[in-house]
Write a structure and sequence with these properties.
It is built from 9 helices and 9 strands. The chain is an alpha+beta fold. It folds into 2 domains: 68 residues, Arc Repressor Mutant, subunit A, CATH 1.10.10; 169 residues, 2-Layer Sandwich (Beta-Lactamase), CATH 3.30.450. Helix 5 packs antiparallel against helix 9 and helix 6 packs across helix 8. The chain is elongated. The protein starts with a helix and ends in a 5-residue tail after the last helix. Keywords: DNA-binding, Transcription, Transcription regulation.
Amino acid sequence: MISAVVRVFSILETLSTKKSINLEHLSQETGLAKPTVYRFLNTLRELGYVHRDENDQYFPTLKMFSIGSRILDHMDLPSITRPIAQGLSDRLGETVHLGVREGDEAIYLVKIESKYTLRMYSQVGKKIPLYCTAIGKSLLAGQASGEVDAYLERTRLIPFTPHTITDARAFHQELDRVRDQHSSQDREEHEEGIRCIASPILDHRGSTVAAMSVSWPVFRFDNAREAEYVGLVRDAAKEISRILGAQI
């Protein structure tokens, strides 16, 4: 890396975490010499990215926010996701979906087909329940407890299969596991014969905005590789999250 660029971003990232900060403390937090920090701050001030007040406190201006906002305006989640989803599907040979929440359901925005003839039936635009799908669980796990309670009050937990969780207490426990593991599973809860693993996708605020999943027919799901599957799905979701600005 070019050292000057690294130092500038070290200063900007530190400034972004403070309401304001003086030169001495900024030098201490970045580990850079005060003359170096002072020189870069002056350049950033001239460019309009940093302001110094009458008490010699420095803080970032909204110009940096404006750049970030313009980048977000041009981000297309399906376009960002598709090559990563394709890579995951190529690695595992199975169907990969990207889903987002739409009201009290989830909707598929991206689908990469399995390489096998026998595969899960689905399509972009299809809506699925939240409570009994891996994508839905990942989306709900990112919500506050009160929002989950409100969802459960509005939603009848219909048993799609004998494996569907239909008890609210048990469902809360399931979401706790999802939060702890940063991944969720559908163990034939929506469709018999289908296993799914999903992981949440976060944005720059750390909010869950989508989830990515892989689906297997149960006869192709290798239980001995479950931890590997979870890790691959989680890594793909993290890669997308980082593109969206998540600090993970």
